[in-house]
Write a structure and sequence with these properties.
By secondary structure, this protein is of the alpha+beta class. The protein has 4 helices and 11 strands. A hairpin with a 5-residue loop joins strand 3 and strand 4. The N terminus is likely disordered.
Length: 189
């Protein structure tokens, strides 16, 4: 609860986040912003690409766009193999649907859903955000003419906070969500 109050105070002091800050918050919560790698920035979107050491390795490329409602974003991801595209995934995230935020001190505790810790505790290493229909995606196989597709709406986003940089990015993103997304998990009680 302390981080909720701190997030509200921080957000109120800074005003509405800029479009780039909102895209960065979405990228952190969706796991796109990894190890400080900067995306290619366009006027209305950020493009993230997985880092590959071998030119023949598959690569994931994701375009992140924040819609007119800053707490909603869409993603277009493609798993690219050298010389062809294999899978296209269209996704929608609504951070206003977050109903609970739980922190854990280890991956094992997160998997077992035991021993939660306060989100602002120094030992917090994993955060789980849940809410019905939080992130919905539709995956299309581009092989064989794109005939097969799968839809999925997981109710959970996992947010790692393993090192000081990840903790800083995660807390910034959570402060934006707490201050502007009207998520039930961050409502004052």
């Amino acid at each position: 609860m302390a981080i909720v109050v701190a997030c509200h105070a921080s957000a109120a002091a800074t005003g509405m986040p800029a479009d780039g800050e909102m895209r960065e918050a979405h990228a952190v919560l969706l796991g796109l912003a990894q190890d400080g790698v900067e995306p290619k920035r366009a006027k209305s979107a950020d493009i993230y690409a997985s880092i590959v050491d071998t030119p023949n390795a598959p690569r994931l490329v994701t375009r992140l766009e924040v819609s007119g409602a800053p707490c909603r974003a869409r993603t277009i991801s493609s798993l690219q193999f050298p010389g062809k595209w294999a899978t296209l995934t269209l996704g929608l995230v609504d951070l206003g649907r977050i109903t609970s935020v739980t922190a854990y001190g280890s991956v094992d505790d997160m998997i077992a859903e035991t021993n939660p810790v306060p989100i602002d505790a120094p030992e917090a290493e994993q955060v789980v955000l849940t809410g019905e229909g939080l992130f919905c995606s539709s995956r299309l196989s581009l092989e064989d003419g794109g005939a097969s597709s799968e839809e999925d709406c997981p109710d959970r986003l996992d947010l790692p906070m393993m090192d000081p940089e990840q903790k800083s990015r995660a807390r910034r993103a959570l402060a934006i969500v707490a201050g502007f997304c009207n998520s039930p998990a961050f409502q004052k009680k």
